[in-house]
Specification:
The complex is a heterodimer.
Chain A lengths: L1 H5 L5 H28 L4 H4 L16 H4 L8 H32 L5 H13 L6 H10 L6 H26 L2 H9 L4 H12 L1 H16 L3 H6 L8 H6 L9 H35 L1
Helix pairs in contact in A: 2-14, 5-8, 5-11, 6-8, 8-11, 9-10, 11-14
Chain B lengths: L1 H16 L4 H29 L2 E3 L5 E4 L3 H8 L3 H30 L6 H13 L2 H11 L6 H8 L13 H29 L3 H9 L4 H29 L3 H6 L11 H10 L4 H26 L6
Antiparallel strand pairs in B: 1-2
Helix pairs in contact in B: 2-13, 3-13, 4-8, 4-10, 5-8, 6-8, 8-10, 10-13, 12-13
Classes of the chains: A mainly alpha, B mainly alpha.
Chain lengths: 285, 307
């Protein structure tokens, strides 16, 4: 909280203006999701009514949130489990693989480093959407077609680049002298990474984790091609099954969307506190 | 500059001491390398291979045709408009995203009651999948049952429902707004993380030197944000360039290619014309363009602080 004092001693009037502006900002970012929530509470006929109503005229249909789990279109409960398992495992894999790579490339020179970093950035430029044909063929060959593991590997591989990059730039901002001092004191590289660098690069790791998890959670194109069984598919793909050629079950599209969004927001609430904690720790230093 | 050269010498000494061989690096970068080679390199190679083949519409590989597919791609009369759309799409979305995010991050870095809640609100479009967010926008601007159209009619801006997604230009505009909307959270948070990494001492020193707000921002804060900003811009360029769902959902119903970028065009060629060979060639072109842009960017901006 030290910045409260040093950054600016805001007058009460300034603080009130900031709160009003904050309210405006929040509204802009929340309105589309309010539309989503309200839509999810309308009946099927009402959501397609012309002209539309702002609020559900026939009362909020909370029952949509019960009936959406049991529709002929897709098994939403299974879709939720698939999404959770794939996203968690892929995020963990990314962290395990990206942290040492980011640290080492930010700290040490070695032959082939530029090639490695180039390869990483090339990965970032290629997205699963461009490569679906090849991924499909490959997963068939590896006997992983229509499995969670396939999507865990694909999600991890395609999100690795960002994690390496963001952590690389955070590691690079930690003065090397700190490492060197620790090494002179006899600490090994792993110890230097865990004890000295990780606490300092917390904001970077948090950013990398959030980015990876959210991107896995919302992955669409590859899942569409790799996961053919309805039960294995994540929510993002399941959603499209409600979009019919002639009429769309918008209330379910929005209901499933809301259910998919809430866990990610909760996760972020948990991490946001850590982010602030890590930051105030950094400010003390 | 002189400050930069001093630690460089130290590094050289230390890396010599730390054994700068590829083998020493392998335990650290090996897992990442393996994952990339196994999951990304093969499909990429397959794409390049397909771009030199003639493949029937049912997927039978007929024969190698060298660069014929590329000749066809470049002779395509739809290509200039698609390239123009792609440039407009990337430049407008990234520019507005970064400008808005810089301001927003600055604002969210200031203390006020309820700031955490506002930050949460800003994260929501990031938490939601792009497909979901785009879908709700698409629904809202529907000329018949769309809420946004009704709102514009009710407050008197429109006389009746307007088909935002029926013509290329308004549809592109809607898609651009959606793309900016979903890109802001990530960009803002990256800048925010950068802002919070700036030591208070630096800001205090600037204040004591009598720098005003804008002076402090331009000459003290912005240079410190360079790393965070460089990465954010780069990731945005790549993501926006490669974005498929937004345009696919918003402009997908428009006949012809007047609202297509390279990315959506690739999918139309694959989905409707069923030409894996041509679409692979387009993908290679798409990839080459991203590669060139990124190479120029990396060369000029140097987003990686190199040792």
């Amino acid at each position: 909280m030290s910045f409260l004092v040093t950054e600016d001693r805001a007058s009460q009037k300034t603080v009130i203006w900031r709160m009003i502006a904050g309210l405006g900002v929040a509204a802009v970012f929340l309105i589309p999701y309010a539309v989503m929530l309200i839509g999810s509470l309308k009946t099927r006929s009402e959501i397609l009514a012309i002209p539309p109503s702002y609020m559900p005229r026939e009362g909020a249909q909370w029952s949509n949130y019960l009936t959406m789990w049991d529709t002929p279109e897709t098994p939403v409960a299974y879709n939720l489990i698939s999404t959770i398992v794939i996203s968690l495992c892929a995020t963990l894999l990314v962290l395990l693989v990206a942290t040492p790579a980011a640290y080492y490339t930010a700290r040490f020179k070695f032959p082939g480093k530029m090639v490695f970093m180039f390869l990483v950035i090339v990965t970032q430029m290629l997205q699963p959407a461009v490569l679906t044909a090849g991924l499909f063929k490959q997963m068939l060959a590896m006997n992983l077609y229509d499995t969670w593991l396939a999507m865990i590997l694909i999600n991890a591989a395609f999100n690795l680049a960002f994690a390496v990059w963001i952590m690389h730039s955070f590691f690079a901002s930690v003065p090397k002298e700190i490492d060197e001092a620790a090494q002179i004191d006899g600490a090994g590289k792993l110890r230097v990474l865990f004890r000295i660098n990780l606490p300092l690069v917390w904001p970077g790791i948090v950013t990398a984790v959030i980015f990876t998890f959210v991107s896995c959670w919302n992955e669409f194109a590859a899942s569409l091609v790799i996961l053919s069984t309805a039960e294995n598919q994540p929510l993002s793909v399941a959603l499209t099954r409600f979009v019919g050629q002639y009429s769309t079950a918008w209330q379910y599209v929005f209901g499933v969307s809301i259910v998919a969004i809430i866990p990610v927001i909760v996760l972020f609430m948990l991490i946001e506190k850590r982010l602030i904690g890590g930051l105030s720790a950094g400010a003390v230093k | 500059m002189s400050v930069a050269t001093a630690p460089k010498r130290t590094t050289k000494r230390s890396s010599a001491r730390e054994g700068g061989s590829f083998l020493a690096a392998l335990p650290w970068i090996g897992p990442a390398l393996l994952l990339i080679l196994a999951i990304v390199v093969f499909p990429a190679g397959y794409m390049i291979y397909n771009s030199t083949r003639k493949i029937s519409q049912v997927g039978t590989d007929l024969k190698g045709v060298g660069l014929d597919n590329f000749a066809k791609v470049f002779a395509d009369p739809a290509l200039p408009r698609i390239l123009l759309n792609t440039v407009v799409w990337v430049v407008v979305v990234v520019a507005f995203t970064v400008l808005i995010s810089l301001a927003l991050a600055q604002f969210l870095n200031k203390p006020f009651p309820g700031r955490t809640l506002v930050r949460m609100a800003v994260i929501v479009p990031w938490a939601a999948s792009v497909v979901m967010t785009t879908t709700v926008f698409y629904y809202a601007v529907d000329p018949n049952y769309g809420i946004f159209n009704k709102f514009l009619t009710d407050i008197g801006i429109l006389d009746g429902g307007f088909g935002f997604t029926k013509n290329a230009v308004p549809a592109m505009a809607v898609a651009i707004v959606v793309a900016i909307f979903v890109s802001i959270p990530f960009t803002t948070y990256t800048i925010l993380a950068g802002l919070q990494a700036i030591p208070n001492e630096t800001l205090e020193a600037a204040r004591m030197d009598g720098a005003n707000r804008w002076g402090t921002y331009l000459f003290v804060i912005l240079p410190q944000l360079r790393g965070a900003l460089a990465v954010a811009v780069l990731i945005n360029i790549i993501n926006v360039f490669n974005n498929l769902p937004i345009l696919k959902i918003i402009t997908g119903a428009i006949p012809g290619y007047s609202a297509d970028t390279l990315m959506t065009y690739i999918f139309k060629v694959l989905q409707f014309d069923r030409r894996l060979d041509i679409s692979s060639a387009l993908s290679v072109v798409n990839f080459a363009i991203v590669l060139v842009i990124v190479a120029i960017y990396v060369k000029t901006v140097k987003p990686m602080k190199e040792v």
